[in-house]
Amino acid sequence: MAEIIPKKQAQLKQLRAEHGQAKLGDVTVENVIGGMRGLKGMLWEASVLDPNEGIRFHGYTIPDCQKVLAPAPGGKEIIPESMLWLLLTGEIPSEAQVRALSKEFAENGTLDEKTVKLIDGLEPTMHPMTQFGIAVASLNMNSSFAAAYEKGIKKTEYWNYVLEDSLDLIAKLPSIAARIYYNIRNPGKAGSSDSAGSLAVNPRLDLVGNYVEQMGLGGNQSLTEYLRLYIALHGDHEGGNVSAHTAHLVGSALSDPYLSYSAALFGLAGPLHGLANQEVLRWILDMQKSVGDNASPEKITEYLWSTLNSGRVVPGYGHGVLRSPDPRFIALQQFCDARPELSSSPVIRLVKQVSEIAPQVLKEHGKTKNPYPNVDATSGCLLYHYGLTEFKYYTVIFGVSRAIGALTQLVWDRALGLPIERPKSLSMDAIQKLVSK
Ligand SMILES: CC(=O)SCCNC(=O)CCNC(=O)[C@H](O)C(C)(C)COP(=O)(O)OP(=O)(O)OC[C@H]1O[C@@H](n2cnc3c(N)ncnc32)[C@H](O)[C@@H]1OP(=O)(O)O
Ligand SMILES: O=C([O-])CC(=O)C(=O)O
Fold first, then answer.
1. How far is CA 214 from CA 133, 177, 201, 219, 224, in A?
2. How many structural domains are present in the chain?
3. Are 399 and 274 in contact (CB under 8 A)?
4. Would you call 63 helix, strand, or coil by DSSP?
5. Dihedral sign computed on CA atoms, order 62, 220, 186, 119
6. Which-ligand-closest: CA of 242?
7. Both 265 and 283 in a single domain?
8. Residue 196: predicted pLDDT
9. What is the pLDDT of residue 314?
């Protein structure tokens, strides 16, 4: 990073000097009241989302990444370590670099006693995302950025400490998430000696290999590979989505990475964003109950209309930016298609059938600008197939992933010296006054 940052700083300086006053678009009243949709108002380095093509990470599409990013030893799928390296540096890591990162994460993955006590003391019926956000925020007591800021460091040194905290947090997220999972699955056993053994970090495993072992699901190689792909692909989706934007906004006040990412998790916990994968599963299982296992297209169509006519959204469909099927959805579908045990699973078959029928129904319904599936349309259903039946936990896995993109940008925010975020707001009367001039 120390080698790469000066080049990017120079690029920013030049952009500002040569094009500082160039226009990227106009702001309409519709932009202001429509959630800033379509407004180009944020700098985000690691990925850019094209409405039709989907996400590119430093210019690489998902199929490109699948070709060039290293898997785990013996695996085939991209792992989050490879993706993080690409997101942070813009470069494709060597296998040795990826293994070194896995090793560093394993060395730093163990939680201290205070954190363990805090998580184990939380009410097990509290939503897992609430538990996750609380635990992540609590880690700020050891923030090297917060400590260095208090001492009084130079602005040019901020990124170093933000990087250190970010890598520390990414290393610990699976341990936090697995501990929450253990406590949900084993009520009354939080803090037992049994939990201490099963939640230990294995220094020879990659980040997700460890996570799956800690969840007690380590024997399942197919699930491990799925989670590697899932966590790598959910990592970044440019800057404007609620979780990424929140981390960037909170971080702009120089809140440390733990606080910034904790705030992001609470945005991810909303049903229109990350919680949709929990909602999709609930909805698909209800549909399955109503239409049966080998449902006709007519029955599925009828069910879709009943959801829409009751005023609800079809979870897993639509998007704030995308206007075609989400390539992350396609990648996860391809993962299923390549494995007969998945493609023959009733829930996964139903998900596929719905994805072929829902776009037409949503077009006829005529409201959503994007009638196609997003990543949440399928992600949770695979987890269900693998025996992870605690729906409320699903968004925690998304939260383990989103850190790699949100924290990457936090490092760049500080390396580029970006200021506190503070857009101008207007009241309706103020808008009225401006437009009638
Ligand atoms: C990882 C992720 O976060 S991906 C997104 C996960 N979320 C979901 O899948 C939830 C279902 N989808 C949605 O609610 C929306 O499509 C969102 C939140 C993703 C995007 O919202 P927007 O950008 O506002 O969508 P859009 O401009 O198409 O909305 C226009 C109208 O269509 C409706 N609409 C959008 N998607 C859907 C849907 N899947 N089902 C029914 N109606 C929909 C909106 O509610 C809105 O209705 P309104 O005019 O009565 O308020
Ligand atoms: O981009 C968005 O608004 C939502 C999304 O798909 C994500 O955050 O992964």
1. 19, 9, 7, 11, 12
2. 2
3. yes
4. helix
5. negative
6. 2
7. no
8. 67
9. 97
Residues 137 and 244 in one domain: yes
Give long-range contacts, CB 8 A cutoff, 24+ apart: 22-30: 29/431, 29/435
Instruction: Name the residue range of residue 286's domain.
Output: 276-385
Length of the chain: 437
**What residues does 71 pair with on adjacent strands?**
78
Which atom of ligand 2 lies nearest, measured to the CA of 244?
8
- Closest approach atom of ligand 1 to CA 398: 1
**Tokens describing residue 360:** 């037409």
Q: How far apart are CA 9 and CA 15, in angstroms?
A: 10
Give residue for tokens 């341990």. 175
Q: 367 CA distance to ligand 1 centroid (A)?
A: 9
Taking the alpha carbons of 307, 360, 233, 207 in that order, is the dihedral positive or negative? Answer: positive
pLDDT tens digit sequence for 206-245: 999 999 999 999 889 999 999 999 999 999 999 999 999 9
Residue 375 sits in the same domain as residue 347: yes
What are the backbone angles phi and psi of residue 264, rounded to the nearest 5°? -60, -40
CATH number at 350 reads 1.10.230.10
Tell me the CATH number at 223: 1.10.580.10
Residues 348 and 370 occupy one common structural domain = yes
Q: What is the pTM assigned to this prediction?
A: 0.97
